[in-house]
Amino acid sequence: MTDLNLLYEAVVGGKLEIAVETTNSAIADGVNAHSIINDYLIKGMEEIGQRFENGKAFVPNLLMSARAMKGSLDILKPLLKDETSASLGKIVIGTVKGDLHDIGKNLVASMLEGCGFEVINLGVDVTSEKFVTAIKENNADIVCMSALLTTTMTYMKEVIEAIEAAGLKDKVKVMVGGAPVNDTFATKIGATAFSDNANAAVQTAKRLLAV
Amino acid sequence: MKKQIITIQPLGKKIEVNYNTSLIDVLHEFGVEFPCGGAGTCGKCKVKILEGSVQKSSKHQQKLEFLGLSDEWRLACDSNVIADITIEIEQFSNLILADESEFEFTAQKGFGIAVDLGTTTIVAQLIELSTAKVLAVEKRINPQVKFGADLISRIQATLDGHLPEMTKIIRETIGAMIDLMIAAGKVEVRKVVIVGNTVMHHIFCGYDLTGLSAYPFISERLAAEKFKTKDLNWNFDPEEDIIFYPSIGSFVGSDILAGIVATGLHQKEKYTALIDLGTNGEIVVGNNKHIVCASTAAGPAFEGYNISMGMRAVTGAISSINLVDNMLITNVIGNVEPKGICGSALIDAIATLRALNKIDTLGEILSGENSIQIAGNVSIIQKDITEFQFAKAAIAAGLKILAKNLNIKLEDIEQVYIAGGFGSYINLEHVVQVGMIELPEEKIKKMGNTALIGAKMFLFNDFEICNHILVNCKHINLEEDTDFQDTYIDKLYF
Questions:
Q1: What CATH number has the domain bearing residue A122?
Q2: Which end of chain A has the smaller Cβ count within 10 Å, N or C?
């Protein structure tokens, strides 16, 4: 039998290869995909998030862990039969138009996914139309926007206006983040919440949806 | 009581002080020297007030007049802080790297001026065109630093309506530098060549920067620009038009074009790389057929920004660290108590601490503490290590992605040139150890200010050499490459 604790440790330690190997052999053993995710992947991501919170792990650790978790999750996802039942909520995420910065946003997406949310990642250079369409199509609970440049973060306001214009304001919560973004800016543009790191984003999302 | 904030440029450091604190106390901590002991007779501690104001007594005014200093200057030794201020420290501009290297040229008559307009610093040289000899040098901190350290904050400032002022101050500054050199050399200048990154080019020319403010970072105006001195309000009359050389694409400008010419990268059959460790962190890889380039914005960490005890290479800065018998041996500029660490020594610190196994392969401090003492009261904290990892991963990943775009392996690069003021002081062995450049040390060579060397070579050549490079050179947006993220994360490891 596969020792799935190895998977938990691979996620916490950020070891992609071991995570993938262990996942494959667990599937071969016939272990249920849901339980691999809930009992090992999510637990691993929660542990690294907690260490980050306590100053015992740092952004490079988070990036490595997220990558290991994602490697495993990509194998498991196609095996999930009724996907939504286990989800804490649906989140649409993207880096706003004019901005190509992917790494921080993908880290947030992976942390959210790794902690039990269903995440629709729209990528980078995302227009307000694309955000609105994705919110509607997926019936999203939260939309997360990222920008790394002072020159592009202003576009977040346009997205929020488009969300209002589409009549989605009461249906979807808006979270913003990225190096130049702060609480004051978030309030000014009418965002629901701001997070300054990937772990805080998970906590904020949980708080907003009361899960 | 409300604190006053002093912003020190070009370091970008903000310090909170009590009302009426004397500047001498504050600046001493940053390695500023007071040769006449604060008597106000030497003028060496002069600071330029970029924002806010510092009142002067009539005695202070007399000293300024005695030293021939204009109204924007104050003597730090006679200044107290009673409002938020932004200052530029004159002593720091002595750190800017000029160039004395030799190159091949065809003798011409008359005299020329080459200007390297950098994001943080400006260097200009007066050249005798019959001998290529440097007759005079002027160095300045770019006065635009008050609008932000990096290119994006400069662009933001232009979008906020400051473009006319920024254009005016940069033209005035370069004009004043040229005036001083002409006066020193007592010669007539025949031609002037200016190089700089695309943002500096646009601001100098007064062009709109909206196109460069967001992806796809395209500007219609990359071409060379010619000026008459009267367009610029300059006081001399050269025979030829003043030329601001053309940009390559996106943020990669004529400073890198000049760097390519200086290294001869475009003439060699074998592949060569040029890495400019300046504020914008440009990388070029290529040969006589194909050239690719990118900017990484990795530079600020190497210049001491975002580093808790980072400082410029002035008195009190740890300038290098070596490992002798498992002990950290530090060099401190001026042999005084260390006050901080400069960019080159940050690489040394990481490399030596890794060798001592005090930080692990992912940069974590193994003692479980948040900081590691380097010498005296100077330590580096976990966040400094992370900042450094981001910067070095950007360079290492950038190099790899550019090689991939040329369909070559990293090992196919025969020679790597490191350019930039900071680049001249680094320990190459340590650069290789931390994985910033994943090639053997023998392949890496420091070349100094390649932008200035290239600008001087432009004085002797006609424009043709640039056209060949511009045609063969392709700009790559690293973030657009599907392998970039994975490569970048891999390169965070030591």
A1: 3.40.50.280
A2: N
